[in-house]
Amino acid sequence: MRRKFVAGNWKMNTDTAKARDLASQVVAGLAANPAWADKVQVAVCPPFPYLAVAAEAIKGSKVGLGAQNCHHEASGAFTGEVSPAMLKDSGCHYVILGHSERRHKMGETDAQINHKTKAALQHGLTVILCVGETLAERQEQRTLAVLKEQFHHGCHGLSREQMSNVVLAYEPVWAIGTGHNATPEQAQEAHAFLRGRASEEFGPEVASKLQILYGGSLVPDNAPQLLAQPDVDGGLIGGASLDAGRFLKIIEAGAR
Ligand code: PEP
Questions:
Q1: Do 44 and 54 meet the contact criterion of CB atoms below 8 Å apart?
Q2: Which residues line ligand 1 (CB under 6 A)?
Q3: Mean pLDDT of 174-178
Q4: Secondary structure class of 182 (helix, strand, coil)
Q5: Which of 76, 106, 180, 236 is the most buried (most CB within 10 A)?
Q6: CB 154 within 8 Å of CB 163
């Protein structure tokens, strides 16, 4: 039985005070509802400068800490970059890689994402690996082909053991930050397809344990239907994760 997982991607938002408050409110909400925390794994992913503040706020709680990106090298002359080792040292358990904003706004390739994934896993991080099609790709009926490619290249060369520290996030680009979420049927189709690819490439045991999150305008109103799909194991939440009350409502939906 896969556990549900709800992670908040704060993107380039918050400041020191807001990061502290937001993380503390999530901790308090979970502490007040222990049954949610039993059923749902929870993480917050602040911007790099606020990792330490959030780490302090979640100390001793069931909330995990994640970063939104990393470089593939361990250290060295890479001005402006942050290594997986630094993320571990900052208290991170997770790192989001291959987010569509990095693929499409920063030009990250599948090969770079694969490099980062391997480095993050080697340093003991759990990778939340994002995949998803653009609107044009969906309209051209290429959704499943794109997912197949992104999954194949993103996880290329990983062992079955390493796959136990990979969480997939299906995030259709057209749904991210737009208010147009995938329907539960669209999400289920994509998730079932990705699980099938995982089975094909890594075997049925890896596939059955693989958590696949949905991301893209997931909000309290649509969370119950989306999270009830058999292959939807939780959510990667952008906008709604910046409000602790809305984020907690999504966690509550995941706990049902
Ligand atoms: C995201 O950034 O991963 C995301 C899903 O954003 P939103 O929930 O705002 O669509």
A1: yes
A2: 9, 11, 171, 176-177, 215-218, 236-240
A3: 97
A4: coil
A5: 236
A6: no
